[in-house]
Design a protein that fits this description.
This protein is 43% helix and 22% strand. Strand 2 and strand 3 form a beta hairpin. The strands form 3 sheets. Strands 2-3-5-1-6-7-8 form a 7-stranded mixed sheet, sandwiched between helices. It has a 3-stranded mixed sheet with strand order 4-10-9, with helices on both faces. A 3-stranded antiparallel sheet has the order 12-11-13. Helix 4 runs antiparallel to helix 5. With 359 residues, the chain is of the alpha/beta class. The protein has 2 domains: 272 residues, P-loop containing nucleotide triphosphate hydrolases (Rossmann fold, 3-Layer(aba) Sandwich), CATH 3.40.50.300; 64 residues, Ubiquitin-like (UB roll) (Roll), CATH 3.10.20. It has 14 helices and 13 strands.
Amino acid sequence: MQIGLVGLQFSGKTTLFNTLSSNASHSQSNKEEATVEVVKVPDERLDNCSKIFNPKKQVNATIEVFDIPGLRMSEDNKVKITNSFLTAVRNNDALFYVIRAFKDESIVHPMNTIDPARDIEFLETEFLFSDIAFLENRLEKIKKDMLKSKDERLKKELPLIEKLFQHAEKELPLRTLELDETEIKILSGYQLLTLKPLVIAVNYDESSIATVDEEIKKLKSKFEKSGAEFIPFFAKIEYELSQMTEEDRQIFMQDYGIKESALSKILRTSYQMLGLQSFFTVGEDECRAWTIKKNFTAQQAAGVIHTDFFNKFIRAEVVHYDDFIKYGSFAKCKDAGVWRLEGKEYIVKDGDILNIRHN
């Protein structure tokens, strides 16, 4: 899974990225395109399993986070969207607009004033224009190709592209259009910008802690047709938190009235948007979190561990994390009737602990 951080220059995007990077396993940098970090997904459930089994290794789930270079003012004193910027944005499964709401006279906003609603509208409009241009060109090409060929795929694609084009012309992002699995599959190679799941992360300063809920409520109301999730965060505070011990972090968050860190919010929201969840494998050698799509069967989940497990699947031993913690061991879970054997069609739940039986 890849998420891209997008925003204007001096929005706090890179500070947020550095906060996420404090939990990274390795990094890779390309200033012309994006800075990339593979970030461990914190999971208290996995930590608790490791405390019980004391394994040789704990393996968290990971996501890739891309810090896409911030948009700057051009020579004609306008913020300009470049092709290289759009290419970097397209290569992500979900997008996070990082929007500036903090005030700092020493850091000049590219548009000279602080206006979160304006910045959100600017990004949405530019990305929508890009999608409209692509769809218009694609429509022309399909119609030309259909004169030369009787390709059935083109006949299926034409009404879909027309539907998207008409929706985008109403100034509505494509993520708000209901599509079935077949249509999503047809569009998968096109990387349309406003079709991607979107989170709008608004960066406040500590003076706004008391009013942030009301401010976010206003933005949600204004952009209710965007199909986006909204997350308020405090970049400077979050970065300080990322450098602290767990004990100090909890005290600091309590003092500032912060209930959840930006890292947890971003990762949790990313999973929800992309329809993902985690299951666990546990033992003395390793405790590991595995990322799967919601509604995956036990056999499909087994295939994520190893392809042989999918092909030679027999049964899955299953107990949910909550039950395992409640009873304290697999033996006690069996006695309580919450440990069970499931077949290949069993739908795996978020937090299930699995042991795969296979040939």
